[in-house]
Design a protein that fits this description.
Layout lengths: L1 H19 L6 E7 L2 E14 L6 E3 L6 E5 L2 E7 L4 E6 L2 E5 L5 E5 L2 E3 L5 H17 L3 H21 L1
Parallel strand pairs: 1-8
Antiparallel strand pairs: 1-2, 2-3, 2-5, 4-7, 5-6, 6-9, 7-8
């Protein structure tokens, strides 16, 4: 009997949480890099980010989180239905309890501005540097350059 009551209590709490988590709500979004501010506390519906723990989507009322960005595409779903895609080389994402989200990228560029031939050339150069690297530091730096260049090529295709 007590188990049944607890089950009903948990179910009603769960249902109340679902009603409180109205995913049509907006969240305040800030997205900046050293070279540009893309969003400055603007309201958006959803943000998808590439992370070393796996790519994930952020909706309003997301659990507070701090994550490290890996090279890839941040997709921003704006309230008017548009989706903006921005390539990031690295950075951080912070999701706050008040539903505000900040993405701080080391470097970032709109996907439509990426040059596929330049990206392939950078990848080839980085792979060459990796194969000829003689110190641990040079190998690590070249491996990072390869990872970023591969992500740029993928984003530009």
């Amino acid at each position: 009997m007590a188990l049944r009551s607890a089950s009903r209590l948990l179910n009603s709490r769960f249902i109340n949480q679902l009603h409180k988590r109205n995913y049509a709500d907006e969240m305040s979004f800030t997205f900046a890099a050293g070279n540009k501010v893309f969003y400055d506390s603007q309201a958006v519906r959803q943000v998808d980010v590439p992370s070393f723990s796996g790519a994930f989507g952020i909706l309003p009322k997301h659990v507070p989180t701090i994550a490290v960005l890996k090279p890839g595409v941040v997709s921003v779903f704006e309230n008017d239905g548009n989706v903006k895609k921005v390539f990031v080389s690295s950075g951080t994402v912070t999701i706050n309890e008040d539903s505000s989200v900040q993405v701080l990228a080391e470097e970032a560029a709109p996907v439509e501005s990426l040059d596929i031939s330049a990206a392939r050339e950078a990848l080839s150069k980085a792979q060459s540097q990796l194969s000829s690297a003689s110190t641990d530091r040079a190998k690590a730096e070249a491996a990072i350059a390869v990872e970023v260049a591969e992500a740029i090529v993928k984003a530009a295709e």
